[in-house]
Design a protein that fits this description.
Rossmann fold; globular; 6-stranded parallel beta sheet; alpha/beta; 432 residues; Type Iii Antifreeze Protein Isoform Hplc 12
Amino acid sequence: MYIYDELSRRIDQPVQVGLIGAGKFGSMFLSQVPTTDGLEVTAIADLDPERAREACRSVGWTADLIRETQFFDSTQDMIENCGLDVLVEATGNPNAGIAHAKMAIASKTHIVMVNVEADVLAGGILAREAKEAGIVYSMAYGDQPALTIELVEWARANGFDVIAAGKGTKYMPEYHYSTPDTVWDHYGLTPDQAASAGMNSQMFNSFLDGTKSALEMAAISNGTGLKAPDQGLMFPPAGMDDLAHVLRPRPLGGQLDERGMVEVVTSVERDGRPVYRDLRWGVYVVIEAPNDYAAACFKQYGMNTDSTGRFSAMYKPFHLIGLELNISILSAALLKKPTGSTLDFNSDVVATAKRDLKAGETLDGEGGFTVYGKLMPAEKSLKMSGLPIGLAHHIRLKNNVGVDQQISWDDVEINPDDQAVSVRKEMEKLYS
């Protein structure tokens, strides 16, 4: 993409960045700023500006650099006062993410959406509005959706049919019912150890209970046209050498419903044994050779094929999260291109009960005690009026809902004047 060449021409006119949210992802990004000539974080917006200053200190910023940076508790004030080229939305809060995306669109400022929760909730309409405004709306390089989309683009641009794409994680079926009280047992930590490391139990539980995996696969699906499994993610065990064997359509001996699916592979067998050469931290794409000659080349160049020799996989074993975010920022500012963006509403993530829930209970959202997110085709979600996981926060149930049952709009008390609700309803109307 020649980003670095373009960046080298901007040393005297650096790209001006505004960061929203100085949590873990934001801090990882901030750690790279002092060593990136041609990029400046002009301002940081956080509910607690002093916490944001401390984040800068903790990642090695000098006192002078912190002094030169403006800190706000209002994103709108930051936008109005700082002349930004790119906004980075890293709050993780879907309601806040939608509000900030709307601010970026109104101010015609490029936006990088680290906030996959907001993107899956309403990206189908936000990306469209951004395009109409002439700005870039981009997924965040370093996170797994953008890295997976990059692999899909590579495959398609080279004439390969994409059979499957996704990421790895650690998964067992019982993880769906994990709560913030039980999460550290699965990570091998005590609550005190997690607290001393500043680890948020609900956030880490969203990685464990399958919600984050569902959101990331929905983002990939919506950014590529790949399909979601009709019954949700299967999380088959598969190592790097087995991807092409496991992730084939069932008639060919694999575990996919059909060609062109998103899926997550787990790093542990169902009996708890570790998967050999697991892809827990990485991303992958499974491709098919379009002809006998290409299949022969797979063999000649040592590709990890299935038994037929026609299916193979390319993968990236790690992702560096915020340490890689510069790629998205610079691509937006210098090339006017996203590193992945929502193109359609193909897949959704619906709130699903972790236990039998009673009318009158309050849902506590992603990674909490009450619900997990289940991936499904958007058409199916719309038909059942599924409640998106991004809106399953601090709302009351009107009806009883059984364990593993999807929650619908009719099951909850919704405030129709809430911005996130109205934007989501607008998107549903657009795509229905």
